[in-house]
Amino acid sequence: MVVSRSKVEPPPSGELVEEMEAFRTFLRDRGYRVTKEREAIAKSILRNRDHFDVDELFLSLRSKTPISKASIYRAIPLLIESGLLAEVYLENGHMHYERVYGREHHSHLRCLKCHSIFEFSAPELTNLEKRICRQEGFKSQGHKFEIWGICSVCQTENS
Amino acid sequence: MVVSRSKVEPPPSGELVEEMEAFRTFLRDRGYRVTKEREAIAKSILRNRDHFDVDELFLSLRSKTPISKASIYRAIPLLIESGLLAEVYLENGHMHYERVYGREHHSHLRCLKCHSIFEFSAPELTNLEKRICRQEGFKSQGHKFEIWGICSVCQTENS
DNA sequence: GTATCTGCAAACCCTTTGCAATAAG
DNA sequence: CTTATTGCAAAGGGTTTGCAGATAC
Predict the structure, then answer these.
(1) Which of A5, A129, A146 sits opposite B144 (nearest CB)?
(2) Residues A122 and A153 in one domain
(3) Over 70: is that where the pLDDT of A60 sits?
(4) Do B27 and B85 share a structural domain?
(5) Are residues A136 and B151, on separate chains, in Cβ contact within 8 Å?
(6) Are strands B94-99 and B51-52 parallel, antiparallel or unpaired?
(7) What range defines the domain where residue B133 resides?
(8) Helix axes A17-29 and A69-81, enclosed angle (nearest 10)
């Protein structure tokens, strides 16, 4: 389950034409081929998903068009390389992903009880990132901030 | 590889007697038994390790005393529960751990090229954590901040 | 036409688990 | 003595991979 309490962002609307074209261009530039499987995967992510794991994506795609998990696993590194996707913290021992394209950078609050994910923005993290990298001579490519605990709903529930 | 550039902390020195006794007490309090395997694992972590994965711990223990991986896997939840260990981000698809006991809270810089881990402290993260939790009605149990990129050594290397 | 991509199933790797033997309390 | 813990080996679950057939270009 994913809950956005602050900074709710609507999924990119109807015209994914532009985003899809960008992905196709990315593929061609790298010498990869534009296949219907890759397009179906990219479209599904762009249109439907903020957070997901491979199984969720597989089941949802499978219900519309035949596809194998292997193709999904093989497409994911491309999607990440293209800037469409990012890996997120693992929960229950397997990898989860989130759409990056068309969303602003954000951090996560994770409820240990109901496993909901809440999102928030904290712009000061970017400054902190810069400062630390300057101090350490590091060239940053990204950061992640995460808080875990018990969400307000679960706190008031009879457990 | 783990590199501590800032806030270098020496491993707890010779007298682990106190820490080990705390662990034994923890076990007894919960009705768990104090076995030589559990003691060997705890001692090895307290004395040698900041970051490690199960295989490293297994090989190092194995060279001194007979032990099975199963026992290590079964001991880890206890070590975490006792406050001695914490899970850290996974790298290469499997779990890594770090010693918590006797170390101050810190964050990680991860080099994508040489896979070194650098550590730093950023006390303002605690304030940020508090503020976000207040806003969202969340009861925090911990946070994690991580930066990835290229470390200074790798930046100056050929290629 | 040719090289890449797909689907399938087998292989992999880390982790967990069932069971009989061992050892802690 | 009783019951938790161990070691082993087998099972699990997510991910990767070899290969033959399909398909993008």
Answers:
(1) A146
(2) yes
(3) yes
(4) yes
(5) yes
(6) antiparallel
(7) 107-157
(8) 90
Provide the shortest C-alpha distance from residue A128 to chain B (in Å): 8
Residue in chain B lying closest to A94 (CA)? B93
pLDDT recorded at residue B5? 46
CA of B134 to C1' of D11 (A): 45
Task: Judge if A82 and A120 occupy the same domain.
Answer: no
For residues B133-148, average pLDDT: 92
B130 CA: distance to closest CA in chain A (Å): 10
**Confidence check: pLDDT of A12 > 80:** no
Which 3 state secondary structure label does DSSP give B133?
Answer: helix
Token representation of residue A17: 């034409």
Which residue carries 């950078």 as its tokens? A105
DSSP 8-state assignment for residue A67: -
pTM recorded for the entire structure: 0.82
Is residue A18 located within the same domain as residue A93? Answer: yes
Residue B2 forms part of a structural domain: no
A-chain residues within 8 Å CB-CB of B120? 132, 135-136
Q: Which helix (H) or strand (E) holds A2?
A: strand A2-3
pLDDT tens readout for residues B57-114: 999 999 999 999 999 999 999 999 999 999 987 777 899 999 998 788 899 998 878 8
The mean of the pLDDT values for chain B is 88
Measured between beta carbons, which residues in chain A are less than 8 angstroms from residue B89?
A: 89
The answer on A122 and A94 residing in a single domain is no
* Contact assignment for A133 to B144 by CB distance below 8 Å: no
B82 alpha carbon, distance to own chain's centre = 13
Domain boundary among A75, A99, A123: A99
Q: Is the C-beta of residue A137 closer than 7 Å to nucleic acid chain C?
A: no
Beta bridge partners of B118: B3, B109
Q: Looking at the structure, do residues A81 and A134 belong to the same domain, yes or no?
A: no
Cα separation values, B145 from A129, A130, A139, B112, B130, Å:
10, 13, 16, 16, 14
Size of interface A-B (CB pairs under 8 A): 111
In a domain, B1, yes or no: no
Question: Residues, chain A, total?
Answer: 159
